[in-house]
């Protein structure tokens, strides 16, 4: 993203079509007391920084190299200083150069927006800036450049998701055999086969949707028992009514049509990933299903390039998860880290032979897909830039052109939804295609499906009166002026835009 400063500032001020929704007042701001932006800046971010400090302390206990230990201690001091700066509402400062091209974009936008304080800044930019600034504390060292302060948390939470992992592994192995043998279509008319396939697609996508309920950046008050209640078949069934916008049928139709019209051609589905751990597990379940059902010939996964929003997927998280299920007995029955404050000291029950076999089936299938070039990892720095995806055609034209090659681009999670819609104060009845700007045009060339459990104020595509109804539900915000119903992850939207229309 090397672009001329003057050009960038001019484009930013002109705003509209290339960079961001209409004006700076339209963006959610950390100063707005009725919004989740305000709560994030004051309550969540300091907790996340404290967790980062604690993680480094635990790692430093085992470091013997004096130079590395000294650098680690200095990072701890810098994290503590950043937390103080945040809690005392200091000004955001320019990011130090660390050799990566995205620093220029962050700093040019900070200068263009004028002085920003932590408690009076566009929420989307300030939150991205926070994680990018934390990352520079590591990239500017000799021994900690690739260290992920959230890695320990990701795998610990995946381990705690054992009941749901085992349930889905068993279900998926059975499903894969049915798809391979064609037994699910026996004795059915073509219409019945298509309807059954559509229902299966819907169910697999809904499993993938609710996997987002384990966003670690929001787990500042949930116990592992609470996490497990958010997962599993019964929870998914009960949550079906909570998908307030559901455009999955349109996505199924385009994949079905592509399979018919491009029978011997590549048919690609892209997934812009969100969280690691259990959510990545269900993303891979969905990817495996799409390939096995021949709804795609290739699935491209887009992880982040740097530790991001606590639990977002890095390429190494994919390898860590694959490694865990290659030897599931060792992973799921390993003693808890004695330094983990959540450790309870109770040895886990051993896995059964059947459970091990079902998890290793996944390992073998996913590894084979990866080896055959059907399951591809493709990170890009654009995914951790500080602005909205309205900027994609202008700031990352090569990535934009690449996404046009896909039959469907699935954007996972709340942050990707916020970036698609510019994190702006849209009327909730605004069409999704309007709110995503240039990407929502029928000739954008990119067909988008957004999976999102709502954890922020911005929401679009609702029927008239639905936002008011949801505000009147328990903890929905009522007449307070807050859209609290959209903060907890209880409600979800699945929105579709056909840029190939």
UniProtKB/TrEMBL annotation:
GO cellular component, one term: nucleus
Catalysed reaction, written as an equation: beta-D-fructose 6-phosphate = dihydroxyacetone + D-glyceraldehyde 3-phosphate; beta-D-fructose 1-phosphate + H2O = D-fructose + phosphate
Record bears the keyword Manganese: yes
Keyword Metal-binding listed: yes
One MF term in the entry's GO annotations: fructose-1-phosphatase activity
Pfam families for this protein: ARMT1-like_dom
Domain writeup: Subfamily III proteins have a conserved RTxK motif about 40-50 residues from the C-terminus; the threonine may be replaced by serine or cysteine.
Stated name of the protein: Sugar phosphate phosphatase
Organism listed in the record: Polytolypa hystricis (strain UAMH7299)
